[in-house]
Amino acid sequence: MLPEPHRLHQRADFSRTVRRGRRAGKRDLVVHAHVDCPDPVDTGVRVRFGGPRFGLIVSKAVGPAVVRHRVARRLRHICAELTADISAEVDIVIRALPGAAGADSAELRRQLNSGLRKLDIPRTGPAADPGASS
Questions:
Q1: How far apart are CA 53 and CA 79, in angstroms?
Q2: 22-25 and 53-58 as β-strands: parallel, antiparallel, unpaired?
């Protein structure tokens, strides 16, 4: 389970990550990442604690509710494993594509790690990818 401080909840956070962040597309996932650095023009007060935050988008195109929830559970579990390795100021939104319904956890983990490497996300822990076998 992904702990509460590591979740994106607000629409504004999702929108900022998707619109202002960088994107890496994979076969079954699209990974959006935004490094939250202080903006001198932004007067809104935001307090960050707890580490990187993850948001999931799993639409009806992925499949019926049972399949969507299975994909979301797998992605949440993978994200929980990554929280110690990713810098605290990073927001990540993962959009599952229809092919994610047929992918197993190892394949989703490999694609997510590949997307994060492509985006050059700041890492705090070991940058090694334990899920990649290729």
A1: 9
A2: unpaired
